[in-house]
Amino acid sequence: MYELNQKFKELPSLIYSLRKNSDLIKIFNSSPDETTYYHSWFLRMNMPLSIKVIEPVLINVADHITRLPLDSTCFDLAPADSFLILDTGFTLTLYYKCHNQNKLDLHPSDNDFMIENKESKLPWNIIEQYISERQIVPKIVITQTNHSQARFLVSRLNPTTSDSTKENQPHLDNNKAGFWSFWTSNNRKSSKLIPEDLSLKRYYDDLIEQVQKFKI
């Protein structure tokens, strides 16, 4: 029976997160200056912060603070009218899970005024704690349900085994379907997340299978 040394128990998860990290590895559409900034600071960070850059931490701030899984199930686990905070080391994304009647008055992209004016609805105790302990001042992104900046959270979520994949998408007959037919209700994916990668569980399952088959 193969057993992983306890000192390396987090290594597979870190490798999984690193290979899909948009700050360090998957830098497509990033400017050279931005990439240089992330890489140079990453090399100078202490261990806890560098691990957070590799594997972001997602928490829910409601009556108490709860750590959530970094996948699409987080939206179901967080109660309504509460904040999900994604800490990637370089960025704090404050995602307000809300109903239409309780939405924050947000601009589509620039909400720095809420930080400058210390908007009372924001979880300032968490924000100030993160900023005070950080080697660098993180960028703060404020977003909410169905808001354009929600991509800062959604893009960092890992796929789950229940998320749609290319293999189970409905087949379209190109001779009968028009270009825009992909966006009809029958053909769109129903999951919250469109995965580009394996789920963490599938990654571990495949890794264990390869280890078991390995022969010295």
From TrEMBL:
Main location: cytoplasm
Presence of the UniProt keyword Zinc in the record: yes
Single GO term (MF): metal ion binding
Topology relative to the membrane: Peripheral membrane protein
InterPro entries (UniProt xref): Gelsolin-like_dom_sf (IPR036180), Sec23 (IPR037364), Sec23/24_helical_dom (IPR006900), Sec23/24_helical_dom_sf (IPR036175)
Highest taxon listed in the record's lineage: Eukaryota
Pfam family, any one: Sec23_helical
Keywords: Cytoplasm, Cytoplasmic vesicle, Endoplasmic reticulum, ER-Golgi transport, Golgi apparatus, Membrane, Metal-binding, Protein transport, Transport, Zinc
Gene Ontology terms: cellular component: COPII vesicle coat; endoplasmic reticulum exit site; endoplasmic reticulum membrane; Golgi membrane
PANTHER family registered for this protein in UniProt: PROTEIN TRANSPORT PROTEIN SEC23
Function: Component of the coat protein complex II (COPII) which promotes the formation of transport vesicles from the endoplasmic reticulum (ER). The coat has two main functions, the physical deformation of the endoplasmic reticulum membrane into vesicles and the selection of cargo molecules.
Protein name in UniProt: Protein transport protein SEC23
Organism of origin: Candida albicans
